[in-house]
Each structure stands twice: as C-alpha cells, then as structure tokens.
C-alpha cells in the first residue's frame, strides 16, 4: 500500500472514467443514471469537460507516482484524499435521491478505499518529513 501503487491505481481508474465521459457520455449515462433521458446536449458538454479533467488528473497521478516525498507528491496525496471524500458525499446523495442507479454504491466504496489509503499515506509522509 505505497503511494506509487496508489497513484498508479488512481491513474488507471480515473483514465477509464475520463475516457468514458469524454468519448461515450451516452454509455456512461446508461450505466449510472436512473433516467438516461436526462442526458441532453448541455449535460453531455459538462460530462465531456469533466472527463477531460479526469484524464489530466490521471496524467498528473502517473507522473507524480515516483516523487511522493516531494511537495508535489504530497499535494497530490491531499488531492486524492479530498476529491474522494467529496465523491463519497456526492454519490451517496445521488443514489439516495434516485438520480444514480445502485451502481453508484460502487463509486462510494471505491472513493472510501482511496480516501483511507491516501489518508494513511499522508500520515506516513508527515511522520517522515516532520
């Protein structure tokens, strides 16, 4: 459970979601939304924009995986932690309010695992640096 493994795992997973949202928003809507008819041109644009941000995030995780002890590496650990804590809240509310299918619970579990993993690594790097 080292940071290199975390960043590699995040880069792969986030790339898949980023590519899906960027190039196949209809497919992603069918997988996650309880009513895929909610997917209109505006939602597609937002999904594609978010997908490109996820791809950029994946590239950043990939490049920082060998530099965890640097300030950039520690900043990316914090980014993984905070973004996944937010995703836990967002996907939980979406599933509970009937916006997302039950597959959204998979996102909650994944975000919880990544939050715990990155939180542990942040504590470890803080002890090494301090």
Quick take:
The chain has five helices and no strands. The protein is mainly alpha-helical and 130 residues long.
Given the helix and strand composition, which structural class is it?
mainly alpha
| Strand content bin | under 5%
- Spatial extent as radius of gyration: 16 Å
Order of helices and strands: HHHHH
Please give the number of β-strands. 0
Categorize the overall geometry. Answer: globular
> What is the makeup of the main sheet?
none
Number of helices: 5
How does this model look, in words?
With 130 residues, this protein is mostly helical. 81% of the residues lie in helices and 0% in strands. The chain contains 5 helices and no strands. The longest helix has 26 residues. The chain is globular. The two termini are 21 Å apart. The model has no long low-confidence stretch (mean pLDDT 91).
Notable features of this structure?
130 residues; mainly alpha; 5 helices; globular
Topology of this protein?
Layout: H1 3-23, H2 25-32, H3 41-64, H4 71-96, H5 104-129
Helix pairs in contact: 1-2, 1-3, 4-5
């Amino acid at each position: 459970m080292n940071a290199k493994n975390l960043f590699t795992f995040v880069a792969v997973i986030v790339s898949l979601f980023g590519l899906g949202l960027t190039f196949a928003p209809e497919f992603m809507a069918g997988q996650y939304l309880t009513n895929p008819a909610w997917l209109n041109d505006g939602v597609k644009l937002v999904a594609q924009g978010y997908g490109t941000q996820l791809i950029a995030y994946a590239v950043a995780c990939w490049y920082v995986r060998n530099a965890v002890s640097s300030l950039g590496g520690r900043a990316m650990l914090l980014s993984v932690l905070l973004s996944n804590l937010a995703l836990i809240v967002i996907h939980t509310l979406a599933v509970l309010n009937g916006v997302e299918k039950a597959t959204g619970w998979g996102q909650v579990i994944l975000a919880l695992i990544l939050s715990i993993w990155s939180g542990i690594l942040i504590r470890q790097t803080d002890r090494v640096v301090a």
